[in-house]
């Protein structure tokens, strides 16, 4: 049987510089405006970078950048500073209620600058999992 392949889509990602890597300590977050949306960018203890929508769906407030960064097992997460719900940094899924998630964004580091990506014409909920 011949395997089938899906044609690759070539979407254009727009990268927005957020901050220098040395400006954000480990296990911290920072809020930034990316393509008109409030995005929370996080640095983990082992120097991985992630970006989520800054809006906590439980608290209904833009507060995730101020959350507590940690791990549950091998899952890096941020706990909302208001109601403490933990959201996985890789996929935005709430660890306590998997039916709830926040949007994720791709992240890259170029020449010591953290950049968050958005794909033109793609809703934030489907931007993709942030990469280290």
Task: Describe the protein in words.
This protein has 132 residues and is an all-beta fold. Helix content is 0%, strand content 43%. The protein has no helices and 12 strands. The protein has strands at residues 13-20, 28-34, 37-43, 49-53, 55-56, 61-62, 68-72, 75-79, 86-88, 104-105, 107-110, 113-119. A 4-stranded antiparallel sheet has the order 2-3-4-10, with no helix packed on it. Strands 1-12-11 form a 3-stranded antiparallel sheet, with no helix packed on it. Strands 7-8-9 form a 3-stranded antiparallel sheet, with no helix packed on it.
Number of strands: 12
Terminal Cα span:
36 Å
Give the radius of gyration: 15 Å
Q: Order of strands across the biggest sheet?
A: 2-3-4-10
**Which regions contain 5 or more consecutive residues with pLDDT less than 50?**
1-10, 126-132
The description of the largest β-sheet is: 4 strands, antiparallel
* Percent of residues in helices: under 10%
Question: Counting H and I runs of at least 4 residues, what is the number of helices?
Answer: 0
Tell me the strand percentage band. 35-45%
Query: What is the H-and-E element order?
Result: EEEEEEEEEEEE
Structural class: mainly beta
Gross morphology is globular
Mean pLDDT: 87
List the keywords.
single chain, mainly beta, 12 strands, 0% helix, globular, disordered N terminus, disordered C terminus
